[in-house]
Design goal:
- The chain has a domain at 56-269 and 299-349: NAD(P)-binding Rossmann-like Domain (Rossmann fold, 3-Layer(aba) Sandwich).
- Helix content is 55%, strand content 10%.
- It has helices spanning 2-12, 21-42, 65-76, 92-105, 120-132, 165-186, 221-244, 269-275, 280-288, 290-296, 300-303, 305-312, 341-419; strands spanning 56-60, 80-85, 110-114, 141-144, 194-199, 256-262, 323-326, 329-331.
- The N and C termini lie far apart (124 Å).
- The structure holds NADP nicotinamide-adenine-dinucleotide phosphate.
- NADP nicotinamide-adenine-dinucleotide phosphate is lined by residues 60-61, 63-67, 85-87, 116-118, 145-148, 169, 199, 201, 263, 265-266, 268-271, 303.
- The chain crosses the membrane at residues 278-297.
- Pfam families: adh_short.
- Residues 372-385, 402-420 have a biased composition (Basic and acidic residues).
- Belongs to the short-chain dehydrogenases/reductases (SDR) family.
Amino acid sequence: MPIPFLASVLMDGWPSWLPGPWTLTKAGSALGAIAVTKIYASGATCTAERNMHGRVVMITGGTSGIGAATVYELAKRGAQIILLTHHEHNDAFLVDFIDDMRERTNNQLIYAEQVDLRSLHSVRKFATKWVDNAPPRRLDTIVLCGSTLTPPGKSRTETPDGVESTWQVNFLSNFHLLGILSPAIRAQPFDRDVRIIIPTCSAYIRSPSLDKALDKKDWSPGKAYARSKMAMMVFGKAYQKHLDAYKRPDELPMNARVFLVDPGYSRTPGMRRWLTRGTVWGLIVYLFLYVFSWLFLKSARMGAQSILWAVMEGSLVRDKGGKVVKECMVVDCARKDVDDEAIAKKLWESSDKLIEEKEKDAAAKRARAKKREMEKEEDKKERERVEEIEALVNTIKKGKQKDKEKPKSGKKAKNGEKTA
Ligand SMILES: NC(=O)c1ccc[n+]([C@@H]2O[C@H](COP(=O)([O-])OP(=O)(O)OC[C@H]3O[C@@H](n4cnc5c(N)ncnc54)[C@H](OP(=O)(O)O)[C@@H]3O)[C@@H](O)[C@H]2O)c1
């Protein structure tokens, strides 16, 4: 086909039905530039492979975006998935999501546990149940994809625990979860390669200092998000040191490693909420300019590649952990204070204190609510008892009234007989 075409161009000249060579060159260059941009923006693809059969993966945020793409890839390779989600077990979306994921991956071992990252109590309830299991349950990988952000222009919100939402969902609850799960992680047999994956974001580079809390007046969605990611970076590194400091009973080195993974900017529901500023107008503009996000942002599947690499790459077994991963390779950290032990210590202690305080407050609130509920129940029972007695008294009264009326009608009847 190309040879006869070239021959006809040579013999008869450029065909009239084809745009001119210059136009074709321009169109080709434009298409090439788009293709190169798309390939570059999509980032690296994970080439690491690992048989995930029998491995247990616990994941937060596994129901959407990068988390859902990670679940799909790992489940396809046979991993047992435990989705930690704020949805209730009988939630129609969750049931559909799991059914669909089981069907698409041909893997029935996908389960869900209710963990709401907006509630420290919910995190503790799940984690203590997991840790209380004897013998310790198998746990190979933890992926912490659950996150939130406040769209730009929107105001600061707090969780029911009274903590700024971004801080609690993105950092404090993860800190709480890993803190409680620590014995279960350390108890894994020496030949198990345990990995804890903390997704981070390059936004951490412009995070305000962790030294002092973010003032309400100083608060902005961008600062809150960046600061929560910075805190996870500092905590992730400190958590690795905490694991390494543990003396295993078999005296072997620690086999659990933390990796801080930057998935890169991706087209996920979270990113969409950020770009559209959480407004309908924003959504219309986003859809109108969708071609730009398609071109410059990764798909959720491509965003999951570095996470998959950190989960499956064999050479990381020899790594010490606490490393940053980006584009499927270990990279340097862009901020020195991420390794600052004094900051890490302060963050750890203040977070412990905040959790204790908020958990106590929440427990007292729950106790008060329970008491109110019991009082209401008692009142209801009392009212029912009174109504029952009143109904009984009324029945007796009616009965007596009827008894009184009976003889009269009897007399009337007898009188009637006489007159007849
Ligand atoms: N997307 C990006 O461009 C990008 C860039 C750099 C880093 N990252 C990081 O990558 C990770 C995944 O990002 P993503 O964009 O895929 O996130 P996403 O689309 O916003 O999804 C967030 C996930 O967290 C879950 N979640 C939210 N609130 C929760 C709560 N209270 N309790 C339990 N789960 C909760 C959501 O569940 P529901 O959907 O059921 O509410 C959802 O599954 C995040 O850590 C993010 O910071 C993302």
